[in-house]
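Entry for the shared binder. Reason: the reviewer on the internal report wants the predicted structure included alongside the sequence.
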Amino acid sequence: MSKALRSYKGMAPKLGANVYIDEACVLVGDIELGDDASVWPMVAARGDVNHIRIGKRSSIQDGTILHVTRKTPAKPEGHPLIIGDDVTVGHKAMLHGCTVGNRVLIGMGAIVLDGAHVCDDVILGAGSLVPPGKVLESGYLYVGSPAKQARPLTEAELKFLPQSAQNYVLLKEEYLQEQASA
Protein backbone atom coordinates (compact mmCIF):
# COMPACT_ATOMS: atom_id res chain seq x y z
CA MET A 1 0.00 0.00 0.00
CA SER A 2 1.36 3.44 -0.91
CA LYS A 3 1.95 6.18 1.63
CA ALA A 4 -1.05 8.01 0.16
CA LEU A 5 -3.33 5.08 1.03
CA ARG A 6 -3.43 4.01 4.66
CA SER A 7 -5.46 1.47 6.55
CA TYR A 8 -7.19 2.15 9.86
CA LYS A 9 -8.48 -0.63 12.11
CA GLY A 10 -8.21 -3.08 9.23
CA MET A 11 -10.09 -0.90 6.74
CA ALA A 12 -8.15 0.30 3.70
CA PRO A 13 -9.22 2.51 0.79
CA LYS A 14 -10.75 0.61 -2.14
CA LEU A 15 -10.23 1.94 -5.64
CA GLY A 16 -12.32 1.44 -8.76
CA ALA A 17 -10.82 1.04 -12.22
CA ASN A 18 -8.59 3.76 -13.69
CA VAL A 19 -8.51 5.87 -10.53
CA TYR A 20 -5.84 8.55 -10.08
CA ILE A 21 -4.52 9.11 -6.55
CA ASP A 22 -1.81 11.74 -6.27
CA GLU A 23 1.13 10.63 -4.12
CA ALA A 24 0.90 13.91 -2.15
CA CYS A 25 -2.56 13.18 -0.72
CA VAL A 26 -3.64 11.00 2.21
CA LEU A 27 -6.63 8.64 2.20
CA VAL A 28 -7.17 6.73 5.43
CA GLY A 29 -9.61 3.97 6.33
CA ASP A 30 -13.05 3.12 4.96
CA ILE A 31 -12.99 5.00 1.66
CA GLU A 32 -14.24 3.75 -1.71
CA LEU A 33 -13.67 5.48 -5.03
CA GLY A 34 -15.67 4.72 -8.16
CA ASP A 35 -14.20 4.15 -11.60
CA ASP A 36 -12.33 7.07 -13.17
CA ALA A 37 -12.35 9.13 -9.96
CA SER A 38 -9.37 11.35 -9.16
CA VAL A 39 -7.85 12.70 -5.95
CA TRP A 40 -5.34 15.52 -6.37
CA PRO A 41 -2.39 16.85 -4.32
CA MET A 42 -2.78 17.75 -0.65
CA VAL A 43 -6.23 16.16 -0.23
CA ALA A 44 -6.78 14.70 3.23
CA ALA A 45 -9.61 12.16 3.54
CA ARG A 46 -10.24 10.23 6.75
CA GLY A 47 -12.74 7.41 6.74
CA ASP A 48 -11.84 6.51 10.30
CA VAL A 49 -15.00 6.87 12.42
CA ASN A 50 -17.42 6.43 9.50
CA HIS A 51 -17.18 5.80 5.75
CA ILE A 52 -16.51 7.92 2.66
CA ARG A 53 -17.85 7.02 -0.78
CA ILE A 54 -16.78 8.90 -3.92
CA GLY A 55 -18.64 8.18 -7.15
CA LYS A 56 -17.57 7.50 -10.71
CA ARG A 57 -15.77 10.27 -12.61
CA SER A 58 -15.74 12.53 -9.55
CA SER A 59 -12.67 14.62 -8.79
CA ILE A 60 -11.45 15.92 -5.47
CA GLN A 61 -9.24 18.94 -6.07
CA ASP A 62 -6.07 20.10 -4.35
CA GLY A 63 -6.18 20.89 -0.65
CA THR A 64 -9.67 19.53 -0.03
CA ILE A 65 -10.56 18.02 3.36
CA LEU A 66 -13.00 15.09 3.52
CA HIS A 67 -14.19 13.75 6.88
CA VAL A 68 -17.10 12.11 8.66
CA THR A 69 -18.94 12.08 12.00
CA ARG A 70 -18.78 9.23 14.47
CA LYS A 71 -21.69 6.87 15.10
CA THR A 72 -23.24 7.45 18.53
CA PRO A 73 -26.21 6.07 20.50
CA ALA A 74 -28.11 9.27 19.69
CA LYS A 75 -27.16 9.07 15.98
CA PRO A 76 -26.45 5.38 15.23
CA GLU A 77 -25.49 6.00 11.60
CA GLY A 78 -23.43 9.11 12.41
CA HIS A 79 -22.73 11.12 9.29
CA PRO A 80 -20.82 9.34 6.51
CA LEU A 81 -19.61 11.36 3.53
CA ILE A 82 -21.25 10.40 0.25
CA ILE A 83 -20.22 12.03 -3.03
CA GLY A 84 -22.12 11.03 -6.17
CA ASP A 85 -21.05 10.54 -9.79
CA ASP A 86 -19.67 13.32 -12.01
CA VAL A 87 -18.93 15.66 -9.11
CA THR A 88 -16.20 18.29 -9.25
CA VAL A 89 -15.04 19.37 -5.80
CA GLY A 90 -13.05 22.60 -6.13
CA HIS A 91 -9.72 23.39 -4.55
CA LYS A 92 -9.57 23.69 -0.76
CA ALA A 93 -13.20 22.73 -0.16
CA MET A 94 -14.23 21.04 3.08
CA LEU A 95 -16.91 18.34 3.05
CA HIS A 96 -17.84 16.91 6.46
CA GLY A 97 -20.42 14.17 6.97
CA CYS A 98 -22.67 15.35 4.15
CA THR A 99 -24.26 13.95 1.00
CA VAL A 100 -23.51 15.34 -2.46
CA GLY A 101 -25.62 14.16 -5.39
CA ASN A 102 -24.66 13.63 -9.03
CA ARG A 103 -23.44 16.30 -11.48
CA VAL A 104 -22.53 18.82 -8.80
CA LEU A 105 -19.84 21.50 -8.78
CA ILE A 106 -18.61 22.45 -5.31
CA GLY A 107 -16.77 25.77 -5.63
CA MET A 108 -13.30 26.46 -4.30
CA GLY A 109 -13.16 26.95 -0.56
CA ALA A 110 -16.78 25.94 -0.01
CA ILE A 111 -17.72 24.21 3.25
CA VAL A 112 -20.54 21.65 3.51
CA LEU A 113 -21.31 20.44 7.04
CA ASP A 114 -22.85 17.43 8.80
CA GLY A 115 -26.17 16.16 7.51
CA ALA A 116 -26.35 18.68 4.67
CA HIS A 117 -27.62 17.32 1.36
CA VAL A 118 -26.62 18.81 -1.97
CA CYS A 119 -29.07 17.35 -4.49
CA ASP A 120 -28.24 16.48 -8.13
CA ASP A 121 -27.42 19.21 -10.66
CA VAL A 122 -26.29 21.97 -8.29
CA ILE A 123 -23.52 24.56 -8.41
CA LEU A 124 -22.30 25.74 -5.01
CA GLY A 125 -20.37 28.98 -5.34
CA ALA A 126 -16.79 29.45 -4.16
CA GLY A 127 -16.48 30.23 -0.45
CA SER A 128 -20.07 29.25 0.34
CA LEU A 129 -21.05 27.67 3.66
CA VAL A 130 -23.77 25.02 3.80
CA PRO A 131 -24.90 24.69 7.44
CA PRO A 132 -25.65 21.34 9.11
CA GLY A 133 -28.80 19.66 7.82
CA LYS A 134 -29.52 22.14 5.02
CA VAL A 135 -30.84 20.76 1.71
CA LEU A 136 -29.80 22.39 -1.57
CA GLU A 137 -32.51 21.65 -4.13
CA SER A 138 -31.68 20.35 -7.60
CA GLY A 139 -31.22 22.76 -10.48
CA TYR A 140 -29.96 25.87 -8.69
CA LEU A 141 -26.90 27.99 -8.04
CA TYR A 142 -26.25 28.57 -4.33
CA VAL A 143 -23.91 31.22 -2.94
CA GLY A 144 -23.05 32.87 0.35
CA SER A 145 -22.54 32.12 4.01
CA PRO A 146 -24.93 30.63 4.80
CA ALA A 147 -25.58 29.39 1.27
CA LYS A 148 -28.76 30.71 -0.31
CA GLN A 149 -30.49 29.83 -3.55
CA ALA A 150 -29.39 32.51 -6.03
CA ARG A 151 -31.11 31.45 -9.28
CA PRO A 152 -31.98 28.47 -11.46
CA LEU A 153 -29.11 26.99 -13.45
CA THR A 154 -29.08 27.81 -17.15
CA GLU A 155 -29.17 25.09 -19.79
CA ALA A 156 -25.50 25.80 -20.51
CA GLU A 157 -24.61 25.33 -16.83
CA LEU A 158 -26.55 22.08 -16.64
CA LYS A 159 -24.65 20.80 -19.69
CA PHE A 160 -21.36 21.98 -18.16
CA LEU A 161 -21.69 19.88 -14.99
CA PRO A 162 -20.96 16.48 -16.62
CA GLN A 163 -18.44 18.18 -18.93
CA SER A 164 -16.52 19.49 -15.92
CA ALA A 165 -16.28 15.94 -14.59
CA GLN A 166 -15.20 14.66 -18.00
CA ASN A 167 -12.48 17.31 -18.20
CA TYR A 168 -10.93 15.85 -15.03
CA VAL A 169 -11.30 12.30 -16.32
CA LEU A 170 -9.21 13.35 -19.34
CA LEU A 171 -6.66 15.12 -17.14
CA LYS A 172 -6.25 12.16 -14.78
CA GLU A 173 -5.73 9.91 -17.83
CA GLU A 174 -2.82 12.15 -18.87
CA TYR A 175 -1.38 11.89 -15.35
CA LEU A 176 -1.77 8.10 -15.35
CA GLN A 177 -0.02 7.89 -18.73
CA GLU A 178 2.79 10.08 -17.42
CA GLN A 179 3.22 7.78 -14.40
CA ALA A 180 3.24 4.70 -16.60
CA SER A 181 6.00 6.10 -18.82
CA ALA A 182 8.19 7.30 -15.93
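Summary line for the report: The chain has a mean pLDDT of 97.
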